[in-house]
UniProtKB/TrEMBL annotation:
Its cofactor is pyridoxal 5'-phosphate. The modification N6-(pyridoxal phosphate)lysine is found at K50. Pfam families: PALP. Keywords: Pyridoxal phosphate. This is D-cysteine desulfhydrase. The keyword Glycoprotein does not apply. The keyword Mitochondrion does not apply. The active site is at S77. Belongs to the ACC deaminase/D-cysteine desulfhydrase family. It comes from the Bacteria. It comes from Desulfovibrio litoralis DSM 11393. Residues 12-319 form the Tryptophan synthase beta chain-like PALP domain.
Length: 332
């Protein structure tokens, strides 16, 4: 696919590794072969999926002459950390609005990403209650900054608008190139589904590139139907931005919602087991909010026999490991 119509700031330094997980495959009974796409190893302080999206968000911001970036996220947001990281690299001011989705969860002295916000030189952090209109809050900050003579650019939560989702559309040709050169046939691709840019972009890329690999999203915060609609709408808007000629089939969007209880960012047993299994068997660090819960979904689907015997499954590691250090009580 052609992305040259869109301003893009190159943050990637080549393809992220696509590796086998033979130890974990064996530990889960050896019925299927598990592989992992290491987007946790993308550049940007401590890595993670948002870097792919931010290539396009920052591309647009810089093309508009912005000198200041505003974004939002949860109190331990990886997206906020990576936005702050690329703002630091590009000499832009960064302002964060953090949503306290779980009451009392904002701790000004917390470890994990909270520490990193400060190290990365974030200019301001404003905490708002769960359920706030985050776009309205960011616009408020933008107005204040404009009055001070700044040129702010707003990156929406998770960079999950059509511009940001382009990063995951583009990831698909990278993956297909790797699979072709490894001569590896993948039967299912499992990705976390949160603010949905990763899932939606991947589905559009798979469709546009004729990749023919079904994509499975594991929800981290919303019921199945609600999330599938969000992914579908964003995927369609992204396809439209790319001028795709054929309509994306709704059946290409599939979400599983059984793995995030009791709620977004709240620990559960499946997440704890997944974090421990990935580290013990593959020396891969997941996170408690996204990749740990998505991996819990992967593990359960493998155990339940959801995938045909002998099939090969690819899992997208979206990063987030700094958040492990804010969850000591659940993981030790
Ligand atoms: C943001 C994030 C996700 C979810 O990606 P979306 O595009 O928001 O759906 C998954 N894993 C990690 C570590 C994240 O930070």
């Amino acid at each position: 696919m052609n992305f040259t119509n869109f301003p893009r700031k190159q943050f990637l330094q080549g393809a992220t590794p696509l590796e086998a997980m033979p130890n974990l495959s064996k530990a889960l009974g050896g019925r299927v072969n598990l592989y992992i796409k290491r987007d946790d190893l993308l550049p940007g302080a401590a890595g993670g999926n948002k870097t792919r999206k931010l290539e396009f968000s920052f591309g647009e911001a810089l093309s508009l002459g912005a000198d200041t970036i505003i974004t939002c996220g949860a109190v331990q947001s990886n997206h906020a950390r990576l936005t702050a990281s690329w703002a630091a690299k590009e000499n832009l001011e960064c302002h964060l609005i953090l949503e306290e989705r779980v009451k009392g969860s904002y701790k000004p002295n917390a470890s994990g990403n909270n520490l990193l916000f400060h190290l990365l030189g974030v200019k301001s952090i404003r905490v708002v209650p769960g359920g706030s209109n985050m776009m309205a809050e960011m616009e408020k900050t933008a107005e204040d900054l404009k009055k001070q003579g700044k040129k702010p650019y707003i990156v929406p939560g998770g960079a999950s608008n059509p511009v940001g989702a382009l990063g995951y559309v583009a990831s698909v040709s990278e993956i297909l190139q790797q699979l072709n050169s490894m001569q590896l046939k993948i039967d299912s691709y499992v990705v976390p589904s949160g603010s949905a840019g990763t899932h939606a972009g991947t589905v559009v890329g798979m469709f546009g590139e004729n990749g023919n690999i079904p994509v499975i999203g594991i929800n981290v915060s919303r019921p199945k139907d609600v999330q599938e609609d969000i992914v579908y709408n964003l995927a369609n808007a992204t396809a439209k931005l790319l001028n795709l000629k054929t309509e994306l089939p709704k059946g290409n969007i599939e979400c599983f919602a059984d793995y995030f209880a009791p709620g977004y960012s709240l620990p559960n047993d499946g997440m704890v087991e997944a974090v421990k299994l990935f580290s013990k068997h593959e020396a891969i660090l997941l996170d408690p909010v996204y990749s740990g819960k998505a991996a819990a979904g992967l593990i359960d689907l493998v155990r339940k026999g959801h995938f045909k015997e002998g099939s090969s499954i690819l899992f997208l590691h979206t990063g987030g490991s700094p958040v492990l250090y804010a969850y000591l009580d659940s993981l030790l």
